[in-house]
């Protein structure tokens, strides 16, 4: 989809807006009763390390990803979009950006974990070529060979 923002590295002054965005992105899962880990702890260190990327719109942050691209395997730690941006292609844009960033860093695979009840996320990852590498009651691990 055209017209979607390009991810840029988050700055320290993005932290408060990023926390708000993460909470908004995962609110629907919490309302469904899913127990998820705290995804806002340690953001300051992740931002300082250059592992947080964000997209911006007129109203502020619209999406984010947390990517550790240390060879040989990169890890997509977290990705999400503003609920108002769901269905626009921004999530796919962020994931494709993570894939290209990992490739440029010399990684040969990209791994992630998600909750098995997040069926929409699992479908999107599979559509983008990810393969399930392990499952448990609370986690599905996927990988993409680069």
From TrEMBL:
PROSITE patterns: GNAT (PS51186). The keyword Membrane does not apply. It comes from the Bacteria. Transmembrane segments: none annotated. InterPro entries: Acyl_CoA_acyltransferase (IPR016181), Bact_Acetyltransf (IPR050832), GNAT_dom (IPR000182). Keywords: Acyltransferase, Transferase. Residues 6-146 form the N-acetyltransferase domain. It holds the Pfam family Acetyltransf_1. This is GNAT family N-acetyltransferase. It comes from Ruegeria marisflavi.
